[in-house]
Amino acid sequence: MNTKFFHASVKVNRGKKMIEKLKDINGNMQRSEASKGEVAVAYFNDLFTCSNPDNFQSLFEDFLPRVNNHTNTELSKIVSKEEIYEAVFSIRTSSAPGADGFTGLFFRSFGM
C-alpha cells in the first residue's frame, strides 16, 4: 500500500541530489550529462596532478617548527636491538592483526 509513497520519496530525493549544471574552466554552464562528465574529469585531473614545484622551502616558510634540534636528533638516530625487542614484546600476543596482517604472536615467534 505504501509503494506510491516510497516511489515518490525516492523520486524527490533523486531530484534533490541531481547535479543540474557545472561551470567549466571558461565560465560556461554545461547541462548535458556528457559535458558535465567532461567538466568533472577535467577538474579532478587538475586537482590531483602534481605541479612539481622546484623550491619546496617557499611552501613551508610560514610553518612554525614543531620539533626542535635535540628532539630531531633523538628521532633520527638508529634504533637499537633492545628497543626493537622491547617494542615487540610490548605487543600482546592476542592482539588484533595490524595493517600488515600479523599479530603480536607472529612477531614474538619469528621477529627476533
Descriptive report:
This protein is mainly alpha-helical and 112 residues long. Helices cover 52% and strands 4% of the residues. Among the domains are: 20-50, no CATH class; 78-112, no CATH class. The protein has six helices and two strands; from the N terminus they run H-E-E-H-H-H-H-H. The chain has a two-stranded antiparallel sheet with strand order 1-2. Strand 1 (22-23) and strand 2 form a beta hairpin. The longest helix is centred in the N-terminal third of the chain and has 15 residues, at 3-17.
What would the average pLDDT be, to the nearest integer?
87
Supply Rg.
Answer: 28 Å
Uncertain spans: none
Largest sheet: 2 strands, antiparallel
Query: What separation lies between the terminal Cα atoms?
Result: 67 Å
Percent of residues in helices comes to 40-55%
What order do the helices and strands follow? HEEHHHHH
E-strand count:
2
Q: What count of helical segments does DSSP give? A: 6
The class by helix and strand makeup works out as mainly alpha
User: Strand order within the widest sheet?
Assistant: 1-2
Which geometry do the CA atoms define? flat
Strand content: under 5%
Protein name: Reverse transcriptase
Organism: Cardamine amara subsp. amara
